[in-house]
Amino acid sequence: MYKLLVLLQDITFLFIDILKRVFSSPFYRKELIKQIDELGVSSLPVIILTGVFLGLVLTIQAALGVQKLGAISLVPTGITLSLVRELGPSLGSLMVAGRVGSGISSQLGSMKVTYQIDAMKVLGSDPLRKLVIPRFLALIIILPALILLLIFVGLVSAVMMADISLNISSVYFWNEVVRSLSFFDIFSVIIKSIIFGGIIGLLGNYYGLTAEGGTEGVGKAATKSVVIISVTVLFADFILTKIFYEIIK
């Protein structure tokens, strides 16, 4: 319990330090743009593949569930709401956490154990401004776009699967998508994605900065960061889903 409290304290202090510096100069805009490009481009393949297979699987599972009830017409609405409200943001964030969160921890961990971060401090450069904040902000900016892309790709694959296996026309499917979605659904996706991006960026940076013990320590830090990020994202998803449910019920 003591170790958990110390961990929460250290992460909170890091978050406060980030907030203090993010609104003051110097600000490394080129590094931020670089991280947005690297983190976004590197995540595109896994996001697209996740969206494709998620749409296919949801269509099959929905068909199995509603065929017995004779309610095939409800498939588009069920797929849309489950993909937009829950599976898209949570599963997409977990996939990004596995790809990007571990990468951030490995990069910073390698710099930490080879004393590159200490050298930056000696030369008068702030590692938080140059290394941590660009990665943190990049994930907050890029993750909502990645999640929206995943949802769109998932809907496209679901439309194709429904047309082939259930004889549901694409026109009817898209009409149901538009009818079932509301502005609040899109708003909740963006809010969840921003918060999940912040979690991935904060914890990925933290475990990278606290890595020790050479290359073995870097590997342990990267593994630990993915596990903790995934659990935290799922916990945050539960809290946010509960809050949104209370708002819209």
Please describe the topology of this protein.
Layout: H1 2-22, H2 29-67, H3 75-113, H4 116-122, H5 127-165, H6 170-180, H7 183-209, H8 214-248
Summarize the entry for a quick read.
This protein is an all-alpha fold and 249 residues long.
**Gyration radius, in Å:** 21 Å
Low-confidence stretches: none
- Structural class determined from secondary elements: mainly alpha
Estimate what percentage of residues fall within beta strands: under 5%
**Judging from the principal axes of the Cα atoms, what is the shape?**
elongated
Number of domain modules:
1
Helix content: over 70%
End-to-end CA span? 36 Å
**How many beta strands in the DSSP annotation?**
0
The major β-sheet equals: none
> What order do the helices and strands follow?
HHHHHHHH
Mean pLDDT: 86
Total helical segments = 8
- Looking at how many chains there are and whether they match, the oligomeric state comes to single chain
